[in-house]
Structures are given as structure tokens and as C-alpha cells.
Inverse folding.
């Protein structure tokens, strides 16, 4: 092992320490060290124990600190291997999701264990699960709540927990915890935890559980595990008050989509005549990531037309054209649209049309009349008849006359041989329908499911 000419260290917590080079030299002398290693050092005659991390070394690689090694001390917190300090997101960069932000903020404030929660004792939760489909903006909203609560975030990505085995994962977790514990209120953000547990073994899950358990008694620090499906997390991570609370981030509704587009356009020139509500209503099934793609497509379309990215004015026409050129990334093969078929396009079937108007169109277009009469509208209906008699055409027509979104689902395709997957598909389907109401969900060949 080579002798180091220069070694740079920094305290793991957010501290600025001047002096103490000789103490550090003595503490690490004769032991090989490498970048990323941590060492606790007693300062002020043992009154303060501070962990330091090796930030850099010359030459690189394992080195030995000698009497001739220059020790340089930087201000903390020390940078982390496999862990990143996430930037907070201010209110101006967030659109929609007011109720979700409120719920997440309240949950994190409670988990921080302020004095009002001291009576909870050992029943205090260690953290929460932030769950939602891909692209809805879970990380963005978490960083916004960090901004609202003046909280620091250390992110632990899936690679840090998957690659290198249990020992490497444990080191990354402890590094993240040490960083936020020394910087006031802190959140350890376990990103894509469902991916981690699906690609690692029981040993990693056990190490995760033991690590999360310690935060039940730590004030000012909590764990937020981000997942797309909380049901895949093993019971040891969710039981007993560990990650037992779930905050769901749903797909954005019409108002949320309009707010997100308005936020994306806040610093752009729109000519003051863009109806974001109308675009949000038409952007059926679009999540936050899809809306970013929509906005960039509209911007690029205008820039291409003018031949310059300077002084671009994005118009309603640009956004409408971008809607035609893009589609939601998470459609999973489900077509979602407002049909352009009317009852006038269908000959005959007078009785079926009348029943559809009464059972579907009226509750959607005039719900206040049903409320005034205290009449409960049907939650659904069954169209039955031989093949080719026009059942699908009737369903599309009533969606069109009701100005409702239309989700056709092929009955046999929703069945899955794996336990729980069919139920999960149905839950996601109705979550999407609720987020984009009013919606008509049309199960074609539903008798295939029953059989």
C-alpha cells in the first residue's frame, strides 16, 4: 500500500471544523484507507464524537497516512458513495396534486417525531411508502414536501442496494442515515424499493428491515420508500409499524393535468390565449411525465416552424397538434378515447338506445336531477345478444353522447395465470377511469371472465 501525499476528509454531518488535522492523522495512521471510508474521531477531549469520510486521496486507491501526509479538512456533509443529496422543489415548480401534497406533508411531519409525538413511544412508525404508477411525479412531490418542511433528502438508488451484495447495501444505508442525521430534519429516500426486493434475496430484505427498525426511535429522521406497487413489498418491511403507512399518488385528473401544463408553461410565452383546461381534458391517461413530453413536443413544433428556439410562442394549435403526435406511455395496450359515433349513426335498436340514454347518458350529463329526486343511478349495465348485433357500437355511441371517455377492455385479456395479477389489472383499470372521469369502462366478452 502506497503512502499518501494528500488526504482530504470531511465530517459526515453538516459541520465546519477548523483544526484537528493531527487528531485525524493519528486516528487513521498505519491503517490502509480508500475514498469513501469513514472513521469516527473524538474531538474536544472526547466531548464530541464526529464521523469523518475520506473524500479524496493522492495517489488514488488504498493508501496509508504517514507523518508527511498533508491532511485537508473540508466542510460537511461529506459526499456519499451510492447516495445523492436530492434538491428540494419549490412551489412554483409544482402543479396540481394539492390533496396529495397535503397528505404527504402531514405524514412526514408526524414521522419526524416532534415533541408532540413523544407519547407514541415504541409505537411510532419508522417511515412510509410513497406509491403510484410510473411517471406520476412521486419523486418530484417528495422533494416539494421537503422544501415545504425544510427537510434534507438523501436518495439511495436501487443500484446501491442491488449491486455489491448485502455488505455494500448496508454501507450505503448507513451512509445515507448518517448524512441526514447530521443535517437537521432528514428523509432517507429509498427509490424503487419494489425493484430492489424483487432482485435481491432474503438477506438483503433482513438487512433492510433491521436498518429501518432503528428509525422508530430516532427524532427528526424518517424513511420514505418509493414504489409503483406496494403489494410486492414483503411483510417484514411493512409489518410492525415499519413501512406500514402508504401515501398514494394517483394518476392526475383533468384539473391536475391542466395545472401541470400551466406550471410547465409558466416561464414560456403562450400569447395569453392557451386554454390549459381544454388540453387537460383531452389529455386522457397522460401522467406528469407524459405531459412534460407533450409540452416539449409543442415547443419543438413551434421552434421548428420558426427555425429558432429564441422567442418561441407556444399556442393552442401547437398543443393540440402535440396531442395528436404523442400518447401516454403507460397505456398498457388499453385504448382510451372519446368516440365519435352517435346514436344517429346506428339504425334501429330503438329500445336499446332508450335504455342506454336512461341508464348511462342521463346520470352522466344531469347528475343533479338524480340527486334532487334521491334516485340512485345504475353503477353499470349488461349488454347481451348474439355476435354482430351492434353491442360495441351502442356502447361507443352512448360514451360519445355523454362526452365521457371510453375504455374498451377485452375480457379474456384481463385474465392472468399468476395469482393476484388479474386483480391488480382491474384495480389499475378503475384507478385510471376514476382519474379521468367521466369514463365508461366497456368489458367486451365479459362472459369469458365469468367462465
Amino acid at each position: 500500500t502506497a503512502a499518501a501525499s494528500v488526504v482530504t476528509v470531511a465530517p459526515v454531518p453538516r459541520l465546519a471544523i477548523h483544526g484537528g488535522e493531527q487528531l485525524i492523522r493519528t486516528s487513521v495512521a498505519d491503517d490502509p484507507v480508500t475514498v469513501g471510508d469513514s472513521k469516527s474521531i473524538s474531538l474536544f477531549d472526547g466531548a464530541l464524537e464526529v464521523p469523518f469520510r475520506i473524500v479524496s486521496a493522492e495517489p488514488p486507491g488504498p493508501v496509508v497516512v504517514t507523518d508527511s501526509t498533508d491532511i485537508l479538512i473540508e466542510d460537511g456533509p461529506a459526499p456519499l458513495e451510492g447516495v445523492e443529496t436530492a434538491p428540494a422543489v419549490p412551489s412554483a415548480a409544482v402543479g396540481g396534486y394539492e390533496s396529495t401534497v397535503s397528505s404527504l406533508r402531514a405524514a412526514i411531519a408526524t414521522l419526524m417525531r416532534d415533541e408532540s409525538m413523544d407519547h407514541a413511544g415504541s409505537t411510532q412508525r419508522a417511515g412510509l411508502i410513497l406509491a403510484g404508477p410510473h411517471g406520476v411525479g412521486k419523486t418530484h412531490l417528495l422533494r416539494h414536501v421537503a422544501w415545504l418542511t425544510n427537510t434534507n433528502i438523501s436518495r439511495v438508488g436501487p443500484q446501491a442496494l442491488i449491486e455489491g451484495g448485502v455488505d455494500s447495501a448496508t454501507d450505503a444505508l448507513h451512509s445515507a442515515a448518517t448524512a441526514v442525521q447530521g443535517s437537521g430534519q432528514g428523509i432517507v429516500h429509498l427509490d424503487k424499493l419494489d425493484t430492489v426486493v424483487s432482485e435481491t434475496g432474503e438477506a438483503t430484505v433482513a438487512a433492510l428491515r433491521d436498518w429501518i427498525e432503528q428509525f422508530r426511535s430516532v427524532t427528526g429522521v424518517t424513511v420514505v420508500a418509493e414504489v409503483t406497487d406496494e403489494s410486492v413489498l414483503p411483510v417484514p418491511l411493512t409489518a410492525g409499524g415499519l413501512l406500514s403507512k402508504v401515501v398514494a399518488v394517483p394518476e392526475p385528473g383533468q384539473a391536475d393535468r391542466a395545472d401541470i401544463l400551466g406550471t410547465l408553461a409558466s416561464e414560456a410565452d403562450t400569447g395569453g390565449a392557451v386554454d390549459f383546461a381544454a388540453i387537460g381534458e383531452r389529455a386522457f391517461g397522460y401522467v406528469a411525465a407524459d405531459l412534460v413530453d407533450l409540452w416539449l413536443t409543442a415547443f419543438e413544433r413551434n421552434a421548428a416552424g420558426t427555425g429558432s428556439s429564441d422567442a418561441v410562442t407556444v399556442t393552442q394549435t401547437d398543443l393540440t397538434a402535440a396531442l395528436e403526435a404523442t400518447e401516454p406511455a403507460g397505456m398498457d395496450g388499453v385504448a382510451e378515447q372519446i368516440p365519435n359515433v352517435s346514436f344517429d349513426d346506428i339504425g334501429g335498436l330503438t329500445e336499446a338506445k332508450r335504455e342506454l340514454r336512461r341508464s348511462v347518458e342521463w346520470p352522466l350529463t344531469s347528475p343533479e336531477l338524480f340527486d334532487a329526486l334521491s334516485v340512485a343511478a345504475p353503477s353499470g349495465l349488461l349488454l347481451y345478444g348474439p355476435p354482430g348485433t351492434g353491442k360495441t357500437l351502442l356502447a361507443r355511441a352512448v360514451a360519445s353522447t355523454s362526452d365521457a371517455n371510453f375504455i374498451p377492455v377485452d375480457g379474456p385479456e384481463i385474465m392472468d395465470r399468476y395469482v393476484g395479477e388479474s386483480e391488480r389489472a382491474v384495480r389499475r383499470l378503475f384507478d385510471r377511469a376514476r382519474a379521468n372521469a367521466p369514463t365508461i369502462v366497456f368489458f367486451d366478452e365479459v362472459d369469458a371472465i365469468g367462465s
